[in-house]
Specification:
By secondary structure, the chain is of the alpha/beta class. The chain has ten helices and ten strands. The chain has a six-stranded mixed β-sheet with strand order 6-7-8-3-9-10, with helices on both faces. It comes from Nesterenkonia lutea.
């Protein structure tokens, strides 16, 4: 996508125009958002070069889905944005923070970022409410009352306020993942990273998690999502980026890229994903 196309698309989002991921005017200002810029990103594990010079950006309030086969570098890219992995070369800027600068305040930067993993990573000995308040109390120094009020509000957002007193083992996988989303939101992030959040779920629970993510997108949250859910990507994402063997092969508006990919490798991948029986 050209720079002008990208600017035009995001101006449309901020104006509340219709379309995938469009920002509703009444909630667009409810939460601040931040963007991401990645330039020349390289990452290797031993002799395996996983990222081979990635250039991409996510505008504030934009939803970008990363798709591609396992091993293409999508999750590593996401982890580099949050500096859970240290890049070998290149730069990453998250809002006002240059994430790859040697003197970056990682704690301050990470307070702007919420991340949801494949696994839920909830504390099994704590209740849902306690899972959602422990970090705001310890990191943001919120009072118990303030942290609980915010946690209950976010649990309500994902439809689980009524289960606040339950333990994780009393919840389904989909419910646990929605708690993980609520937990991330209690830190009031400006950017959300999702690393295949539905891959470990029973098919019957996937829809509830995707609905929670869709609600975030509609509220103007900046989102970078690694996913194999093509329906979600087509409906919710502003752009889709197809990666293969550590490179960005193709990117564009979600409906266009999924419906009419231009690169042979993208065409082959989507044919296998969308028509696994060769129909």
């Amino acid at each position: 996508m050209s720079q002008n196309q990208n600017q035009s698309q995001n101006q449309g989002r901020s104006a509340g125009l219709e379309g995938p991921g469009a920002v509703r005017p009444e909630v667009a200002g409810a939460r601040s958002a931040t963007g991401v810029t990645i330039s020349g990103l390289h990452k290797s594990f031993g002799d395996n070069e996983v990222l081979k010079g990635i250039d991409m950006s996510v505008a504030p309030g934009e939803v970008v889905c990363l798709i591609g086969a396992s091993g293409s570098g999508k999750s590593t890219l996401l982890r580099c944005v949050n500096r859970l992995e240290n890049p070998d070369a290149g730069t990453i800027t998250v809002g006002e923070h240059e994430a790859t600068h040697p003197d970056v305040n990682l704690d301050a930067m990470r307070r702007q970022i919420g991340m949801v993993f494949q696994q839920f990573n909830l504390f099994p000995h704590l209740s849902v409410l306690e899972n959602c308040t422990i970090t705001p109390r310890r990191v943001l120094r919120q009072s118990t009352a303030e942290a609980e009020a915010e946690a209950l509000a976010q649990l309500d957002t994902v439809g689980l306020k009524h289960l606040a007193d339950r333990r994780p083992d009393q919840l389904s996988g989909g419910q646990q993942q929605r708690v993980a989303i609520a937990r991330a939101l209690t830190m009031k992030p400006q950017l959300m990273l999702f690393d295949e959040p539905t891959s470990a779920l029973d098919p019957e629970t996937v829809g509830d998690v995707l609905a929670s993510m869709r609600k975030l997108a509609q509220a103007g949250m900046t989102m970078l999502v690694v996913t194999h859910e093509m329906g979600f990507a087509r409906e919710v994402a502003d752009r889709v980026v197809f990666m293969d063997q550590g490179l960005v092969v193709e990117e564009g508006p979600a409906a266009e890229l999924i419906g009419d990919p231009q690169q042979p490798r993208t065409q082959d991948f989507l044919r296998r994903v969308l028509h696994p029986l060769g129909e």
